[in-house]
Amino acid sequence: MGRMEQRAAGDTRDRIVQVTARLLQRQGYEGTGIKQIASESRATLGSVYHFFPGGKQELAAAAIRHGDQEFADLLRSALDSEDDPGKALVACTRELAAGLRDSDWTDGCPVTATALETIGRAPDIQLACAQAIEHWQDLVAGKLLACGFAADTARELASTVVSTLEGAELSAQVARSEEPLHTAGRHLARLVACYAPDATAR
Amino acid sequence: MGRMEQRAAGDTRDRIVQVTARLLQRQGYEGTGIKQIASESRATLGSVYHFFPGGKQELAAAAIRHGDQEFADLLRSALDSEDDPGKALVACTRELAAGLRDSDWTDGCPVTATALETIGRAPDIQLACAQAIEHWQDLVAGKLLACGFAADTARELASTVVSTLEGAELSAQVARSEEPLHTAGRHLARLVACYAPDATAR
DNA sequence: CACATTCTAGAACGAACGCTCTACTCAGTA
DNA sequence: TACTGAGTAGAGCGTTCGTTCTAGAATGTG
After folding, report:
1. Residue A42: how many CA atoms within 13 Å on its side-chain side?
2. Which CATH number goes with the domain that contains B167?
């Protein structure tokens, strides 16, 4: 009853979204063309516009949501890998640095480039970007809450943590060096220690 | 002796660079066209290619260097406005937040968008971006050195400070809120206090 | 079988892209 | 006066852009 076709169709749709997400991450919104997306995802223009009748904007918003999840998965697994919140943040920077190095510094944050280009001119995409950042902040705040931090403190720290991760990843990409990320990791660990619930900031 | 023409010519060149810098800041590299640059700077295509025979890339690199100086001026004046390094960093975030608010969140860092789009595909531009970030780090490190921080500590902190400022400005733009910047300012002040030469981190 | 629906396929459209090119203006020099 | 060199001006090059459109393949249902 149509499972096969629908599966195949779903595969095509997913392939389009995944390829778009990667291209947006590497070349930004204006630098990525629909025809490139179609050819690299082994789909045709007809298919792309069939699944995304809203055109490039709708497709980009879907791809940003995909990148949101991808980044969230990395963040979640790094945060869960350590009990101590400071060590967990260092694990985050280590994972980000590894991803950058392995991609020869091409695969940074899957959202940043598109977010910056579309500010104030593509509300759907900007919304998806804002939700992504909120989502990542929630993950960090959740970790801090689980470690006993006060709710307000956790939320504020999470904001700065995500900002710093974003900025350090940018610095690392531009400088082609892991150092900004590793340094940021150490400093973030020190920062959260200042606000730790067991007041003895070492 | 041709002073007038040369002045007028220099004015045209400067106008082109300034307009390009602003457009790159707001729309990124791929989103900014040479013809838009020409029309908004009241120059013609012929003039643009006369002053920048290397085309879009050469012009963009010059505009990035201009944005570097612009951002450095803001940073320098904010850092000089306070003796205490923590308060100086808060002043930086306050200035950045004011700039964002006044431009309805369109004028963020003049380098970031272009940097992300051209990573690994336009070496001249990427170099200019890397030098800009280094430049800003040097300003922050200089302030910390002047406050008595150890050289290594100052350099590392400066890296994280600039990363956090970049990331917080991005977060603020996407969320259309000053909060990420103000929060980051408080946290950066707390962070540098941890490494202050007078070891009594309050 | 016919029939609708879903998805694939790519030609074609007008607009915009970066860039090249020739023609021109105009002050300074010999 | 003739010439030079800097800068202005914009038509036009080939290409690519996002999008639209029609045609057909594939599958499920009556």
Report:
1. 6
2. 1.10.357.10
CB contact under 8 A, A113 and B108: no
Q: pLDDT tens digit string along B140-157?
A: 999 999 999 999 999 999
Q: Is the pLDDT reported for residue A6 higher than 50?
A: no
Residues 38-57 of chain B within 7 A of strand C, judged by CB, are: 45-46, 49, 55-57
Q: Give the residue numbers spanning the domain of B190.
A: 61-194
Query: What's the structural domain count of chain A?
Result: 1
What is the predicted pLDDT for the residue at B198? 80
The answer to whether A64 and A125 are in contact (CB under 8 A) is: yes
Tell me which chain B residue has its CA closest to the CA of residue A128.
B174
For the CA of B14 and the C1' of C20, the distance in angstroms is: 24
**Structural contact between residues B163 and A96, judged by C-beta atoms closer than 8 angstroms:** no
| Strand C contact with B36 (CB < 7 A) | yes
| Rounded CA separation A153/A141 (Å) | 9
Q: Closest residue by Cα to the C1' atom of nucleotide C18?
A: B34
Distance of C1' in D7 from CA in B114, Å: 29
Q: What is the average pLDDT value for chain B, to the nearest integer?
A: 93
ipTM over 0.90: yes
Would A30 be classed as within a structural domain? no
Strand D close to B47 by CB, under 7 A? yes
Nearest to B166 among A117, A167, A190 (CB): A167
pLDDT band at A7 (very low <50, low <70, confident <90, very high): very low
Both structure tokens of A165: 């991760």
pLDDT of A134 reads 98
pLDDT at position B66 over 70? yes
Helices of type H across A41-120:
45-51, 55-80, 85-102, 112-118
